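Protein in question passed on here:
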Amino acid sequence: MKILHFRNWIVLIGLILSSQVFAQSGNVTVSGTIKGKADNTALPYVQVVLKTEIDSALVIGTITDEEGRFSLSPVKTGNYVLVVTSFGYSTLNKLIYVGSLSDFLDLSVIQLEETVESLEEVVITGQIEEVSDKMDKKVFSVEDNVSQSGGSVLQAMQNLPGVTVQDGKVQLRGNEKVTILIDGKQTALTGFGDQYGLDNIPASAIERIEIINNPSSKYDANGNAGIINIILKKNKQEGFSGKVGLNSGLGALWVKKENLPTIRPQYQYTPKVNPTVSLSYRKNKMNLFFQGDYLYTQTLNKNEFVTRTYDDGTIIDQQTKRNRNTHFANAKLGFDYSFNDKNTLTISGLYGMEKIIDNGDQPFFNRDSSERIRLWQFLEDELKTTAMGTLAYQHKFAQAGHILNAGFNYTFHRENEKYFFDNIYPTYTGHDSFKLLSDEQVADFNLDYVKPLKFGRLETGAKFRYRTIPTNMQFYPGINSPLDTTAGGWANYKEVIPAIYGNYIVDRKKVEAEIGLRVEYVLLNYKVNPNHSTYKSDGYNYMQPFPTMRLAYKFNDKNKISLFYNRRVDRPNEVDIRIFPKYDDAEIIKVGNPALKPQFTNSLELGFKSALEKGYFYTALYGREANGTITRISSTVPGSNLIYAVFQNAGKSYNAGVEMTFSMDLAKWYSFNVNGNVYYNQINAFSVENKYPIVHTFSADQQSIYSGNAKLNNTFHFKKDIDVQLVAVYLAPDIIPQGKIDSRFSLDMGIKKKIQKGKGEVFLNATDLLNTMVIKKRIQGNGFSYISSDYYETQVVRIGYNYKF
């Protein structure tokens, strides 16, 4: 027996060395148990080898442990032959198909006969988390996005296929109802059920970005357009490792459009500074990690020129100019501890601080700019602080891929906003201010269970959320104040959401199926100060099923077609129902609506993927129907030229289109990725009742348009480790609530060079190189219309340095 052990160890060493040469890329773990057929006893030290079916090339190998178990990893999707050899038993060859829907593949028990050889087919499943597998997810490395290095997460997303940015929000296929996750979780940094703050989170903190157009039932049902999952950096190398970097830049290099008379200068040559550090220490059972980033920017955040025309013939020219200073600090600290190879505990904490100072001017002139009617000058001082603690436990059962995950996440988020403005008329000046304080607390508990099956896997789990947001708005009026002091006071938002889900996956050689169901119960209470001038306490509750489905057919190893179905919901966020009027614009007053109800959406998509020799082609036909469409309605009331923008449920809307991506490595020095998206948007005619500031009815005709966007990403690899990226983006005209937005175009460029034997790199890039990005809108409301052009800062030149150790 000792001789047998020695021989097998020699074979094992040879197999490991060979696998380093021949192993293919992938993330799938193939496992099983070897037993003798006669007495069903476990067979230790059995040689298990995986070879390709086509040419019998060695892929990877191992030997079984004392319990007869084996594990082979990593293995990519494909057809293989599993060869099992043991002294005294007949060699066994099994055809193995590694599919694309599970990271862990269990062959269960494989029996060896002493004298009889057998050959039979076993079909199992597998998953490699790439675009080419399920077509539900696209993964992009931030490090490869050279043209946006040193910018924010929002800027980094602008170049990604299928993504557009409008009014500071991310859109997927022309829809902004996107759920933003950080490391798979909703956080206050980017909003629970909403999205904000993306323009202030540095891209240097991010490892990769995942775009999930068709989420499975294990994800929250919120966000009908899909999910964007932002993965923070976390080193896992043995010993001490890390990365440090520093970049800086200048924006607004020239004035796109001069100010209207009598106001303060707009920002120009705006500085940007972003130091970053990522550290990790891994030894034995412990892995410590730290990620810290700081971002300081000055930005010409808004520079919008508007001509408003009222039905009574009044015409007003105005400008809204906002100079912004931002400080953002982010730190994440935590550790992974492995009690043994079956049980792991992760504890981490995250702290974020965002300080925003806005200095703005908003002059109002008559049509020929000969008379200034009014000047609104403001200072907005906003401090947002976020603290989050995460506890995660994972238990691995004896069967590979048989896993139980349990997690608890607590978030505290404070929004402290102070707003001061001077309301300057020819005959008087009023000094007004208000203060908003909001403390958000969210507790999430998750339980997830995964069980591999012979032809797929079973996933199930539960989630419970408890969320409270008490808010308080205090108004401090000056002379002839425009503030509605009766609309202040307190309001308390409370949300309870328990949910359960199940997901069943089947993966055969030609056919794949993934069918899931998520059931959520939502209880929302919104208590309002009883002295509020308009709104009273409101809320809603519902229990709804959210089914998901994916069916796929594989023509061969390179061509696959998939059909997706999703039912999802967009619940109104707290800011959408917030009862306090917001005065960040002197004559467009934004107000929430506590009577707002959820928007439910049904989505259908047909996708096709073809793997080419040096690239791939992907296309998808998709369609969505939304009921209770949430949108902001702008209208006037009799006796006033103020415009009130109030959230409402506008009825049904539709979105349908086709997306195509073609990626190719034409040569060692050049590759490209071209993405196009053409879609049809329609909002049905509707009529709603606005309650603020007085009850009035708003009606709108049906709106529809054909729109789309196109992106061309060119990457050049030159000698001496120099990479160049050139990205062109075109956005076609599109409809927006009560109007249209004109086409836009930009060109981004970046250069990166590796130095210090590949451990260091320097980069230089420029966004909106030609300074062509201008947002032009045409809005038609009840009693008014306006045309606007926003010449905000889009052109930024950055230089930076990163070093890995």
Summary: Residues 1-25, 116-130 have pLDDT under 50 and may be disordered. Residues 2-22 form the longest helix (21 residues). The two ends are 46 Å apart (CA to CA).
